[in-house]
Write a structure and sequence with these properties.
This protein starts with a helix and ends in a 15-residue tail after the last helix. It has 24 helices and 19 strands. It has 689 residues and is of the alpha+beta class. Among the domains are: 2-33 and 360-511, Multidrug efflux transporter AcrB transmembrane domain (Multidrug efflux transporter AcrB transmembrane fold); 44-134, Multidrug efflux transporter AcrB pore domain (Alpha-Beta Plaits, 2-Layer Sandwich), CATH 3.30.70.1430; 187-216 and 237-271, Multidrug efflux transporter AcrB TolC docking domain, DN and DC subdomains (2-Layer Sandwich), CATH 3.30.2090; 568-674, Alpha-Beta Plaits, CATH 3.30.70.1430. The radius of gyration is 35 Å and the shape is elongated. The longest helix has 31 residues, at 329-359. The strands form 5 sheets. Strands 5, 6, 13, 14, 15, 16, 17, 18 and 19 form a 9-stranded antiparallel sheet that branches. A 4-stranded antiparallel sheet has the order 2-3-1-4. The chain has a two-stranded antiparallel sheet with strand order 7-12. Helices cover 51% and strands 19% of the residues. Helix 1 runs parallel beside helix 19 and helix 12 (362-369) packs antiparallel against helix 19 (495-503).
Length: 689
């Protein structure tokens, strides 16, 4: 089969080159549309069930909501873990499935069980709903709404603009699964009842509640026919303003005199009970929005679409209100991809230079060098088919030395055989046939080339058996390398022989490069020396291996090198009994300390939880996002030194809080995967708290 493939390629070189051109075009298309991110998404297959009940304490939430949901989810197939958090006004249950389960199938299983859970939850408490279809890398874009001084817009007005204007427009962006509102005050019309008036009219709070509920609806009455036309009937009852609420009839007295809502209370404009706030740069509260990406989407494409829609949204904002971006995932992606591009380009140039020096034939070296981009394009096609994203782990793992290995052997053997054939032809007086020589030389080394590349690929096969976080992190890397190796092997057996009939023509001379000649002058005496003292050389080698083995355990180990996301995330923890107002004061003080550093551009603090509580924090927890200026504007030498200075300044300036530093993605992924935000967590169980 291998011989037939090479023979076909040499005899039908134009067909082969046409197929390679088609492959390159398909690879370029796949590369452009390849999902790109900074790191692999290691979030497990999980479904969050969130229930909001603003009036319930944690113990009641656990008993009346969380426990029924957990019981309903028990027994689902392929469930690895069910964990929950019960807080004031919120229940968050996370169901983790095996990695082999499709996300949408998992959500369907959970949805079917939610009906049973709702039956066990008392009426009026809350209805459990599934969280958005997103992952730990889902928060791709964050912005704030800020009112200009003197514009008249407060935190309540900004939240209304966010919920009814900005959010609804951004929800139409393809690939965005949720626009999460955070901070401000959600507007409400409230009826403040007077107990004395209720008692005088013989009414209860439930009477008023039911009356308002019944009178806040539009109803249909079918139609009536008049002549040749029909008229639709509508009963208009939807409340549109406070006066409509005030004029709702609660009951009719004995004399037929109606008792209105305004007779038993006052209608005022208020806000919902909130458990979250956002502050900025030590200047007070703002309103923020978080764009969550749909799982499996291309983050770079989605962010670009969001930014285009944001420009349209800005035009619709009231005068005096600004939409300001403070987190954009494409900045991290661009930095990561720039690192990969730099490494790949430098590696390719280095390989080409080495080939030029060692092969001693510039035409053959350039031919081998073309294997590098073609193998990458072939790999891009398979990455697209198998849904492998391009990131630091997958693209950064490509080794061009391995990729060109087969082509180097093919070209070098062909140059040697052609030089020998030309020399024999000169001695015998016969004419050498280049195409036949090239075919014979390629067939001679085809089997060793296949075995060599196959052995390299087999080394990566154990990585493909990894599961869980390890699998999500390293399997894309192994697949990308294997794809590139398969591409290089196919090209070495088809494209290289076909191209050599066009490139390696004319007079060919086999000569060693100056580097090889210089190396031999050192190598031959060294080889002779080792040959004379074989026992000593073997003992030295064994001793070095033993020393390396003894030193290895002390080198330390890490799952992966820590990715520098560019910006910082700070977690502020206070006493569990702290109020939201005090927590906001503390984070504002933290922001003022951090803004004193010249390296800091913006500090945004998110205290408590957002509207959709995908991150179920209490008000005693705050996440601070610190956007840093470009490195050339820094006063401090490196980030570790900057973190140390910040930590020391916060310990002195804000002693009533516990501060820990991390990075935005790192913090979010840790929370979603394990339910805790630290590298080490301890859980204590027992009856006596």
């Amino acid at each position: 089969m291998i011989s037939g493939l090479i023979r076909f390629s040499v005899e039908n070189r134009l067909v082969v080159l046409l197929l390679v051109a088609i492959m390159a075009a398909a690879g370029a298309y796949s590369l452009v549309n390849l999902p790109i991110d900074a790191v692999p998404d290691v979030t497990n297959v999980q479904v969050q069930v969130l229930t909001s009940a603003p009036s319930l304490a944690p113990l009641e939430m656990e008993r009346q909501v969380t426990f029924p949901v957990e019981v309903a989810m028990s027994g689902l197939p392929d469930v690895e873990e069910i964990r929950s958090v019960s807080k004031f006004g919120l229940s968050a249950v996370t169901i983790v499935f095996d990695d082999s389960v499709d996300t949408y199938f998992a959500r369907q299983l959970v949805l079917e069980r939610l009906a049973a859970a709702r039956e066990q939850i008392p009426d009026g408490i809350g209805s459990p709903e599934m969280g958005p279809i997103s992952t730990g890398l889902g928060e791709i874009y964050q912005y704030e709404l800020r009112a200009a001084p003197g514009s008249g817009y407060d935190a309540k007005s900004l939240r209304t603009i966010q919920d009814w204007n900005v959010r609804r427009q951004l929800l139409g962006v393809p690939g965005a699964t949720e626009i999460n509102s955070f901070g401000g005050y959600e507007k409400q019309y409230q009826v403040q009842l007077d107990p004395a008036k209720l008692q005088s009219f013989g009414l209860t709070i439930r009477d008023v509640y039911e009356s308002i509920s019944r009178n806040n609806a539009n109803v249909g009455g079918a139609y009536i026919q008049k002549g040749s036309e029909q008229y639709l009937l509508r009963g208009i009852g939807l409340v549109e303003n406070p006066d409509d609420i005030a004029n709702i009839v609660v009951k009719t007295g004995a004399e037929g005199v109606p008792v209105y809502v305004k007779d038993v209370g006052e209608i005022v404009e208020g806000s919902t009970v909130r458990q979250g706030a956002v502050t900025s740069n030590g200047e007070g509260e703002i309103v923020a929005g978080i764009v969550l990406m749909l799982k499996g989407e291309n983050s770079r494409t989605v962010v670009e679409a969001v930014k285009e829609r944001v420009e349209t949204v800005r035009k619709s904002l009231p005068k005096g209100v600004e939409l300001i971006t403070f987190y954009d995932r494409t900045e991290l992606i661009d930095r990561a991809i720039a690192t990969v591009e730099t490494n790949l380009i430098e590696g390719a140039i280095l390989v080409i230079v080495v080939l030029m020096v060692l092969l001693g034939n510039w035409r053959g070296a350039l031919l081998v060098a073309t294997i590098i981009p073609l193998s990458m394009l072939f790999a891009a096609i398979l990455m697209r088919i198998f849904n492998v994203s391009g990131n630091l782990m997958s693209l950064g793992a490509l080794d061009f030395g391995l990729i060109v290995d087969g082509a180097v052997v093919m070209v070098e053997n062909t140059i040697r055989r052609r030089a020998e054939a030309q020399h024999e032809a000169e001695l015998s007086g016969h004419r050498e046939v280049p195409q036949r020589t090239i075919l014979e030389s390629c067939l001679e080394v085809a089997r060793p080339v296949v075995f060599a590349v196959a052995i390299i690929a087999i080394v990566y096969l154990p990585i493909l058996s990894l599961r869980g976080i390890e699998g999500k992190m390293f399997v894309p890397m192994a697949l990308t390398v294997v794809f590139a190796l398969v591409g290089s092997l196919l090209l070495s057996l088809t494209y290289v022989p076909a191209m050599m009939t066009l490139v390696v023509v004319g007079k060919v001379s086999e000569k060693e490069s100056f580097l090889i000649r210089w190396s031999k002058k050192l190598y031959i005496p060294s080889l002779a020396f080792v040959g004379r003292y074989r026992a000593q050389a073997l003992a030295l080698a064994v001793g070095l291996v033993a020393i390396s083995g003894a030193i290895f355990p002390y080198l330390g180990s890490e799952f992966i090198p820590r990715l520098d996301e560019g910006d910082l995330a700070v977690q502020v923890q206070q006493l569990p009994s702290v109020s939201l107002e005090q927590s906001v004061k503390t984070t504002t003080a933290v922001e003022k300390v951090l803004m004193q550093f010249p390296e800091v551009k913006t500090v945004i603090s998110k205290t408590g939880r957002a509207e959709v509580a995908t991150d179920p924090m209490s008000v005693d927890f705050s996440d601070l996002y610190i956007a840093l200026k470009p490195r050339e504007e820094w006063v401090t030498k490196d980030k570790s030194e900057l973190v140390e200075k910040m930590s020391k300044a916060l310990e002195e300036g804000v002693p009533n809080a516990t501060i820990s530093f991390s990075q935005p993605i790192e913090l979010r992924v840790a929370e979603l995967i394990s339910g805790v935000r630290s590298d080490v967590a301890i859980k204590l169980y027992g009856d006596d708290l």
